[in-house]
Write a structure and sequence with these properties.
With 418 residues, this protein is of the alpha/beta class. Helices cover 52% and strands 10% of the residues. It has 17 helices and 8 strands. It has a 5-stranded mixed sheet with strand order 3-2-1-4-5. A hairpin with a 5-residue loop joins β1 and β2. The longest helix has 23 residues. The N and C termini lie far apart (64 Å). One of its GO terms (molecular function) is zinc ion binding.
Length: 418
């Protein structure tokens, strides 16, 4: 039994509320985010006595839950003393998931200028997936700069600097955080939708249980589970709309996970996918993908390698891997690219600094105040990295290219040493 639980409250019709208890640590090795759900309850009302009886029934369901050591709750959970009394051995803390969801919704309701809203939401995404003190302080400062002082109190930005709230979450890796938030989002949104239909709790639970026992079974379109699955494909969406939404999710995942230079390269590759006809053939140990010009083979395990030049050299998702993601309606995951291109604390710092420095040179406009020696040092470091991290054949190819450039720009080989 997990020692950390998250308590989620969803409002329903006629003032009723659904309480969902979920695993807050590593998810059980089962299919989908629903594996996190351990208990559902609908109290008669939300008085202290009624909630105490509900929590007591949860503990009675299996006495092992008395060993729970941490309870994560959303802001505004009714009658918190009733929860603390039912689990006297547990600490009760504000849930990072609820905090970030609330902050996201409030920011979107503020109707900020487009660029300001995008900056804040991007910083929030970084904070959710890499909850370092640096990211949290950056988010706090950004809100202080871009939101008017009279609106700041309702955002409770002091929560961002509360180490106690983030203590559990900040130990997660980028990938673990992404999976955690995705699981909770899918489950809480789905169950909230099912509960809001007004059907009895028993009917909802029965339909959900039948579906997860046999996911391949056909569902009555009017059933709660069918409506739950429809969150990914709302009724009436055309194929073009589904494709567009998938493409936007892939682009966003590239921006969220990759450093800026890597994201630029991959977005250019994805632009080719969007404009071309893709032929995908499945084999036993590889996927054969043809995107306009030629065919290459993608390893289906993890989708992290391809036979094409781009993937072999840069170790980034190429047009062929992105074509598979697009076809399967999936998004980029951190393990699909080399660490040096990943955002966050797990990235290879030296590689990231080199890429970021190279990007600064490319973006800068030439003027007299620009220090030429700085430009030379950046370019030299990048060229050295490209020459030392490649096969012998690739080295020969790159060296010949540099030799030709040197000869054409600054003189013949006999006079200029490369």
């Amino acid at each position: 039994f997990p020692r950390a639980l998250l308590v989620h409250r969803a409002g329903g019709p006629a003032g009723r509320a659904l309480y969902v208890f979920l695993v807050a640590g590593p998810a059980p090795a089962l299919r989908g985010g629903m594996a996190r759900v351990v208990h559902l309850a609908v109290p008669r009302d939300e008085s202290a006595g009624s909630l105490s009886r509900m929590y007591g029934a949860f503990r009675a369901f299996n006495p092992a839950w008395a060993e729970t050591r941490l309870l994560l709750v959303g802001p505004g959970l009714p009658q918190p003393p009733a929860l603390a009394q039912a689990f006297p051995a547990a600490e009760v803390h504000l849930s990072v998931f609820h905090l970030c969801k609330r902050l996201q919704q409030q920011i979107q309701r503020l109707a900020l200028e487009g660029r300001a809203e995008r900056l804040i939401l991007a910083a929030l995404s970084d904070t959710m997936c890499a909850a370092t003190e640096s990211n949290r302080r950056k988010m706090h400062a950004l809100l202080g700069d871009l939101v008017t002082p009279d609106l700041l109190p309702q955002l409770h930005i002091h929560w961002l600097l509360d180490d106690e709230i983030w203590a559990v979450h900040r130990e997660r890796t980028w990938g673990d955080s992404s999976n955690y938030f995705r699981d909770l989002e899918v489950v809480t949104q789905g169950l909230s939708q099912v509960f809001s239909t007004g059907l009895s709790l028993e009917s909802c639970i029965t339909s959900l249980a039948q579906h997860y026992q046999n996911p391949q079974s056909s569902l009555d379109p009017s059933s709660p589970v069918a409506k739950l699955e429809a969150t990914e494909n709302p009724e009436g969406d055309s194929k073009e709309e589904i494709n567009r939404r998938t493409e936007e999710l892939i682009k966003q995942s590239l921006r969220d996970i990759c450093t800026e230079p890597a994201a630029r390269l991959c977005l250019s590759e994805f632009a080719v996918v969007q404009k071309s006809v893709q032929l995908i053939g499945a084999g036993e140990d590889a996927l054969s993908i043809q995107v306009l010009e030629d065919a290459h083979r993608v390893d289906p395990k993890g989708l992290s390698s391809c036979t094409c030049h781009f993937n072999q050299v840069f170790q980034l998702p190429c047009r062929h891997i992105l074509a598979v993601l697009n076809s399967d309606r999936k998004t980029l995951q951190p393990e699909m690219l080399s660490r040096q291109w990943q955002k966050g604390r797990d990235a290879h710092q030296a590689g990231r600094d080199s890429a970021d420095g190279f990007l600064e040179v490319l973006k800068s406009s030439w003027n007299k105040s620009l220090d030429k020696s700085l430009v030379v040092s950046f370019l030299t470091a990048e060229i050295s990295r490209l020459l030392t991290h490649c096969s012998r054949e690739e080295f020969e190819c790159r060296y010949r290219t540099l030799r030709e450039l040197a000869d054409s720009w600054i003189g013949p080989y006999v006079e200029v040493k490369l």
